[in-house]
Specification:
- By secondary structure, the protein is of the alpha/beta class.
- α12 packs parallel to α14.
- The protein is globular.
- The chain binds flavin-adenine dinucleotide (FAD).
Length: 540
């Protein structure tokens, strides 16, 4: 098999953002979609709640815009919010055309007969869903459509190593030419060339010890874009979900807020209830307040987890209302009708990312970004529930429109050398990678998590600098592997989060620091980091 692949469009990532772009392109365009693991594996598959869009006659665009701006704590770009919200109903229509089945409501007089739920921050019912597994329905439907399209080649178990740019190859012009990709099956690095490349690699939440995200969420796209010369914005805004099941074998299982809505109480290890001391709404306070309170108590006590208890409600009630959580916890030997659930907060969503414009274009001509990897300006300082899948769909459509025009322009003939492995050896100490993975995720959790201070951030910065040096050395000497690539990316992303957090000298939205505990009305711009390799885009 050849080491060189040539396509019109290269899509890195096969979640909602990647597949939506591939399917939006004309069937005459040859597309390669690359996924680190199976095509379906990614955050999209695990999305539960649904997708927000103005579908009910009582609801309005103005209202969805207002709610999003409110949630974003003064940092959303109002033009972007309107752009996304206005395209919401058409994006849902497109999903229906692809064959996605949303939950119906026999009593619904409008919204096309679909059931709409209401989630935190939304003042109307506007979340369309497929029971409590919306992401699975969207992902598997789009995957089936992509598999049926002869112009789309799907490469599973392939991990992008780095973007190839003209600038990196010594040219003065800046342009994305493709990517080097490790074929995890053969262990060889292959060259994928394409005049248009989309980053759709998802978020970076695996940088923290506890996360609701699947293993693929290691911020690869953000790190690759940064190294290639793209500006990165707002990485200080990482969203944490307050309650994830704490069990060595229960990776990333969210315990829904609905449990607190039905009276569940948060307890310290000695059984004391603590939320009333933090907020008059106690367990029903907003997500970020609950997450901060749990974090505070865990750090104060040095506790590994706290507890969420609903066992005071009748067992039939608990089983009937929370069959999924009841069954899942039982698998781990926890009967929630009789005992409290061990919980920790978990990194859930990356609000910042690769800066893109209104056409999903990054700073590098030929390179686009969509989905959780991108910073569009929609979420500001805090993401409103169910706005993220919508953003994937809308920005991939915008990218598809731009790519259709871009492909008409002449293709660059810059020669791309194959990946050079002549000077590297087989890795001799995998333990270095495993150890550093663990160390990074733990100190990010302890020092750059839900509650920050300058001292903690500085401490984390010193450790990241050391790790980076070590990994750079290791990377230069040994053959690349999946774990090494992810670790290298995680360290870069950790550094970007710390840099952004150090720059924001206030508390706003998801960024909370004890050194500046209040919002500063003068700090209303996004935090933008400019890499050494940045070349301003020529005006068009
Ligand atoms: C538990 C959970 C519940 C959620 N619930 C909701 C919800 O109800 N509503 C909502 O709007 N949002 C929800 N979200 C957020 C939403 O699911 C994500 O933001 C969205 O799915 C991201 O889609 P994406 O296409 O950007 O990335 P993903 O779906 O994460 O896909 C990333 C893709 O990139 C690939 N990839 C990554 N790195 C590389 C690399 N180096 N090389 C090759 N491929 C790579 C992966 O293999 C994968 O295919 C939830 C998230 C989680 C984790």
């Amino acid at each position: 098999m050849s080491n060189l692949h040539q396509h019109d469009v290269l899509v890195l990532g096969s979640g909602a953002a990647g597949l939506a772009l591939a399917l939006r392109l004309d069937p005459s365009i040859s597309v390669a979609v690359i996924a680190k693991r199976e095509i379906s594996e990614g955050s999209t598959l695990y999305a539960q709640g649904g997708i927000s869009a103005v579908l009910d006659r009582q609801d309005t665009t103005e209202s969805h815009v207002r709610d999003t701006l409110h949630a974003g704590g003064g940092l959303c770009d109002p033009k972007v919010v309107r752009r996304v919200v206005e395209r919401g109903p058409a994006a849902i229509g497109w999903l229906l055309d692809q064959g996605v089945h949303f939950t119906r409501d026999a009593n619904a007089v409008d919204a096309g007969g679909y059931h709409l739920t209401r989630e935190g921050g939304h003042t109307h019912r506007r979340v369309i869903h497929a029971a409590d597994a919306t992401g699975r329905e969207v992902e598997t439907t789009l995957e089936a459509q992509a598999r049926a399209r002869p112009n789309i080649a799907l490469y599973e178990h392939h991990i992008a190593v780095d973007l190839i740019t003209a600038h990196k190859l010594g040219h003065t012009e800046q342009r994305c030419l493709g990517a080097y990709v490790l074929n995890r099956g053969s262990g060889r690095v292959e060259t994928f060339r394409a005049p248009c490349v989309l980053l759709a690699t998802g978020g970076a939440n695996k940088v923290y010890l506890y996360t609701s995200n699947p293993d693929v969420a290691t911020g690869d796209g953000i790190a690759m874009a940064w190294r290639a010369g793209c500006r990165i914005a707002n990485m200080e805004f990482m969203q944490f979900h307050p309650t994830c099941l704490y069990h060595p074998k229960a990776k990333s299982f969210l315990v829904t807020e609905a449990l607190r809505g039905e009276g569940a109480r948060l307890l310290l290890p000695d059984g004391t209830r603590f939320m009333p001391q933090f907020d008059s709404r106690a367990e029903l306070a907003p997500r970020d307040i609950v997450a901060r309170a749990i974090d505070h108590e865990m750090k104060r006590l040095g506790a590994e987890c706290l507890y969420l208890d609903i066992s005071h409600r009748p067992p039939e009630f608990v089983r009937e209302h929370f069959p999924n959580i009841h069954a899942r916890c039982l698998e781990f030997g926890i009967d929630i009708t009789r005992e409290p659930i061990p919980v920790v907060p978990a990194a859930h969503y990356t609000c910042g990312g690769v800066l893109v414009d209104a056409r999903a274009r990054t700073d590098i001509p030929g390179l686009y970004a969509s989905g959780e990897v991108a910073y569009t300006g929609l979420h500001g300082a805090n993401r409103m529930a169910s706005n993220s899948l919508l953003e994937c769909l809308v920005y991939s459509e915008l990218a598809a429109q731009d790519i259709a025009g871009a492909l008409d322009r002449p293709v660059t003939d810059i020669e791309v050398p194959p990946w050079d492995e002549s000077r590297v050896a087989q890795p001799d100490e995998e333990v270095v990678v495993a150890h550093n993975w663990e160390e990074l995720r733990r100190f990010m959790w302890d020092y750059v998590g839900i509650v920050r201070t300058n001292k903690r951030l500085q401490r984390a910065k010193r450790r990241v600098d050391l790790l980076r040096q070590e990994i750079r050395e290791y990377y230069g000497h040994f053959r690349v592997s999946n774990d090494l690539l992810e670790l290298r990316n995680l360290v870069d992303v950790a550094d970007l989060i710390i840099q952004c957090a150090l720059r924001r000298r206030e508390s706003r939205g998801l960024h909370y620091t004890l050194d500046f505990p209040h919002k500063d009305p003068t700090q209303r711009s996004p935090t933008i980091l400019i890499p050494d390799a940045y070349v301003p885009r020529p005006r068009q």
